[in-house]
Amino acid sequence: MSTTTPTAPADPERKAPPAKQRTKVRLGDRIFSGAARGAGISLLVIMAAIAIFLVVKATDALSENNGSFLTDQGWDPNAAKPAFGVVTLVFGTVVSATIAMIIAVPVAVGVALFITHYAPRRIAQTLGYIVDLLAAVPSVVYGLWGYIFLAPKLLGLHSWLADYLGWIPIFDKEQAGVTARTLFTVGIVLAIMILPIIAAVTREVFLQVPRAHEEAALALGATRWEMIRVAVLPYGKPGIISASMLGLGRAVGETIAVAMVLSPSFEVSVHILDPGNNTIAANIANQFGESGDIGRGALIASGLVLFIMTLLVNGAARVVINRRKAFSGANS
Amino acid sequence: MKATTRTRTADRGTDIRTDPEAGMTKRIEVAGLNAYYGSHKAVEDISMTMEPRSVTAFIGPSGCGKSTFIRTLNRMHELIPGASVDGSVALDGQDLYGSDIDPVAVRRTVGMVFQRPNPFPTMSIYDNVAAGLKLAGIKRKGDLDAIVERSLRGANLWTEVKDRLNKPGAGLSGGQQQRLCIARAIAVEPQVLLMDEPCSALDPISTLAIEDLIALLKERYTIVIVTHNMQQAARVSDKTAFFNLAGPGQPGKLVEIGDTETIFSAPTEESTADYIAGRFG
């Protein structure tokens, strides 16, 4: 004890100057860290406020619901006896987004590969620029174009598919359709809409593939396509998945383009070549203006369902990416 | 059926390793070769012969075109946009730059190991070695197993990795990764093995392991190695070629080639002696 007592006061004295220097915070640093922290906290507060508001409004409407929210096909929340169910909306959202992804992902990967590995440099630059530009086109433009131009042009394709592939239930056409404002057309419009964003992100990912890996494949006697298969695609896979998730987010959340193109109904129909079905986002856009309190609550509840669907899909994608983390390019 | 194939492949493997005559090693003759990046001439008028079943080392200061030249030997050079080659490179008399020659086939015949170990990060150790075989159309599991084991043994890596063949190749140490790359290159049974500074990113112990391996591999392959380390050239090679350039922006040229012993003890050219003595470069 006696030995420590004399050293104890000496110690702080010796250490004091460097400690003081280390902890000295400049005014600018303090303001910046305060501002950053404030921004972070306010984001959380806003998120929480939105979540609470949505849940409260949704539960209000759900408690007035006379039907089953999860299984009813109809949507009549503004009637004297409100009854509404989300199943048609979920079905339409899932199907249209699936069609969009099936078309858009392979084409976008192809576009990105062409830009990064096949096109001459000058063409590649121009194409890359155009892809970026397309990604910035507002969705209402795609909606107008889909409704006025594309849908009429697709009538022929609809009957062709029904004629030759009609034995597959989804391509079976029950109504002798005079309109192509169908879920199928919606899927195509969505595909065209999300293609640029997927292509733009995948292109960036493919550009990150180290030249060393490409050369390794080529030196083994790989053709250009084999090199892409061996070195580029596996390395870019997590990026392709992330890019697809971005595109999927845009597809399931797309409101105005779907609302313009689709001729909706509240009945689940697997016949995607017939008009009908509906999506969550388009239904919100169509109904919000004419809804009362319960009607809005019901729409908010459907929005929450969309939110949960997106979370699930994103979670699944994350699992897929993480499962082979040890084999990702990040370790090279 | 399957068992027979496996035995046969394994037999073939042993044959090649025990009997040097069974190797398919070939002589490389280069005549009047120029290599360009766009309009810039990087390598000028190189003529030389690389003997089968021996190690030829390229030495010389940075920028003298050694790496460019070695990449013309398996037609990797022309993959760089704007790059071109004229002159001829003959493998046992067959011109690799002939109009009827498929560059992809050339790269299958002439294997290459790079400066930095570059195993495919998305593949396991096993799949890395099997990558070239799968490209060559060998799909049967039994055949693949046998060749993967033989190649990893040939690269002195088998005992270190045999219990973790399905772990990622990128998880190995730098020296092991480079031996994995050598295993990957020899799995497709090339006739020539090119090594572009294979030890420059490795520690001394891993370097020694690679040098020992080169001594073994030269029984079966024509080996060409670029190195910045003159002791390494002296240790591993039978012939040494010294490259130099007249000045910055000038093309690299072959100054002289000869038996390694002669080049290091009594070179013909003064610049070779100066370089080896460490007076420049």
Automatic annotation (TrEMBL), chain A:
Which UniProt key words apply to this protein?
Cell membrane, Membrane, Phosphate transport, Transmembrane, Transmembrane helix, Transport
Q: How does it sit in the membrane?
A: Multi-pass membrane protein
* One Gene Ontology term of the molecular function aspect: phosphate transmembrane transporter activity
Q: Which Gene3D superfamilies match?
A: MetI-like (1.10.3720.10)
Lineage, top-rank taxon, reads Bacteria
Positions of the ABC transmembrane type-1 domain:
90-317
Q: What is its main location?
A: membrane
Where does this protein reside within or beyond the cell?
A: Cell membrane
UniProt GO cellular component terms:
plasma membrane
Q: Membrane-spanning residues where?
A: 34-56, 83-115, 127-148, 154-171, 183-201, 298-321
Q: Which residues does the annotated region (Disordered) include?
A: 1-24
Q: Which PANTHER family match?
A: PHOSPHATE TRANSPORT SYSTEM PERMEASE PROTEIN PST, PHOSPHATE TRANSPORT SYSTEM PERMEASE PROTEIN PSTC
- What does it do? Part of the binding-protein-dependent transport system for phosphate; probably responsible for the translocation of the substrate across the membrane.
Q: Which family does it belong to?
A: Belongs to the binding-protein-dependent transport system permease family. CysTW subfamily.
Name of protein = Phosphate transport system permease protein
Q: Which organism is it from?
A: Embleya hyalina
Automatic annotation (TrEMBL), chain B:
Biased region (Basic and acidic residues) positions are: 8-22
Domain named ABC transporter: which ranges?
28-270
Q: Name one GO cellular component term.
A: membrane
Q: Which SMART domains match?
A: AAA
Q: Which Pfam families match?
A: ABC_tran (PF00005)
User: What is an annotated GO biological process for this record, any one?
Assistant: phosphate ion transmembrane transport
What superkingdom does the record give?
Bacteria
Keyword field contains Cell inner membrane: no
What the entry lists under CDD domains is as follows:
ABC_PstB_phosphate_transporter
The UniProt keyword set, sorted, is:
ATP-binding, Nucleotide-binding, Translocase, Transport
The record ties this protein, via PROSITE patterns, to: ABC_TRANSPORTER_1, ABC_TRANSPORTER_2
Specify where the region named Disordered lies, as residue ranges: 1-22
Could you give a GO molecular-function term held by this entry? ATP hydrolysis activity
InterPro entries associated with the record: AAA+_ATPase, ABC_transporter-like_ATP-bd, ABC_transporter-like_CS, P-loop_NTPase, PstB-like
This one is known as Phosphate import ATP-binding protein PstB
What species is this protein from?
A: Embleya hyalina
**What is this protein's gene name?**
pstB_1
